[in-house]
Write the structure tokens for this entry.
Amino acid sequence: MVILEKLLWILSPEGIQQIIQAGGLPIICLIIFAETGFFALLPGDSMLVLCGMFAATKGANGEPLLPLPWLMALVPIFGILGDQVGFWLGTFVGKPIYKWKDIYLWKIPLFKQAYLRKTESFYARWGSFTIVAGRWVPFVRTFAPIVAGLIHMRFVTFIAFNIIGAFSWVWSMLLAGYLLPPIIEPVIQKVWPGFTLAEHIDKIAIGIVFVSLLPILHTLWKERQETQKAQSSCAEK
């Protein structure tokens, strides 16, 4: 139960914020690598937006809480490496993955056939461009490279879309967070005189993380409802 609580804490707003502040650039790169490669439930989107906000916010020493140039240079590289691992995993495992049972770690889903089917429907709509477009969709960005390996996508095509997707996703999320403070701070000051983002970044971070986690929480809730419905149907028979 202790391990489960720690895993759930990572997905909480407080957990994400503390990880960013305590782990810095190395842990940010590691999380992006893991989420794009094999662990779908890590909070990549919200973490990148928060990183951008921290980069736009100066600490007590007058320096940004995180260095934006290093974030924009290094984090996409780990996003590329994560997708590459997923591609090799799909190539190595092959079609038998469709016979795998759902895999859980203390009730947290690590692999689900539902995620695989969702990614396949994304491929049906976007084709090979799923490697780029899927970066903005939870679960799909984890399973898209795996499916690319399964269908033996040409490596040249995959690596090109992989690079484009990683840089466009990471940069868009970082810049969204980085450009947000100068926009929202003057607006808030009109109703809250003396407001400064540096003093209240924790509260704003919690709000952003909560909103960004809603799609994941909704998916998990929906899957749980479907499971309970299926179990009830079996019990009635």
Residues 2-226 form one domain. The radius of gyration is 19 Å. The beta strands are 103-105, 108-111. The mean pLDDT is 76.
